[in-house]
């Protein structure tokens, strides 16, 4: 059967190591609270085949690459209703899963991997788990705790609603074509937070404002938000990477109340 050609503009790097594929699939579904799943960017199906062997999952697969979709039509047992040619970033997951809970898995295209996670946040009440392959530095940023130099906007926003585990590092040579960087598999499992105990819009605004000037103290980066009544609070002497998710929630409430 003709192989699918990796396309640079789609960020495709096909995993060739079956053992890593099996480890990735085995890490998926540990929360046990969903029975439907979607694989993003299956390529030639290295994850798809072991996923289809799982009797606990109803699998949907989506790829924007026509060549990959045609390959999987011939090389897998997926029926046409479960094999979708389209853009994951544009699909209505609520409509696809009819409001039911689901999981997301994939060897994610590096050029949209962060966007995939932000889309996951849009469906956080349904998206119970994500297991994915990322560029290593992106995976480290997502999973890092406060105090880390790579802790940032994505760390805080995702950790507010998901428990995140860095599972394992993956070398360049197990992909075709090999990427120029190492990769990593991480797992996000939905936590018990239904909604943040603060104004979520202001929460996001403060996080972005703080980390966009991460070398400055909060007193300088958040100056437009700080009223005289709270300007002496010691939290403003810190830099954003020193503040936990709960710390940003408390900060949001502090600024909101001072209004």
What keywords describe this structure?
about 260 residues, alpha/beta, Rossmann fold, Helicase, Ruva Protein, domain 3, seven-stranded mixed β-sheet, two-stranded antiparallel sheet, about 20% strand
Protein model, in words:
The protein has 259 residues and is α/β, with parallel strands linked by helices. The chain has 2 domains: 8-190, Vaccinia Virus protein VP39 (Rossmann fold, 3-Layer(aba) Sandwich), CATH 3.40.50; 200-258, Helicase, Ruva Protein, domain 3, CATH 1.10.8.100. Helices cover 32% and strands 19% of the residues. It is built from 10 helices and 9 strands. The chain has helices spanning 18-26, 48-52, 66-75, 93-97, 113-122, 136-143, 153-159, 200-211, 218-221, 245-258, and strands at 14-15, 36-40, 58-63, 83-85, 102-107, 127-135, 162-170, 175-176, 183-190. The strands form 2 sheets. Strands 4-3-2-5-6-9-7 form a 7-stranded mixed β-sheet, with helices on both faces. It has a two-stranded antiparallel sheet with strand order 1-8. Strand 2, helix 2 and strand 3 form a beta-alpha-beta unit. The protein is elongated and about 65 Å long.
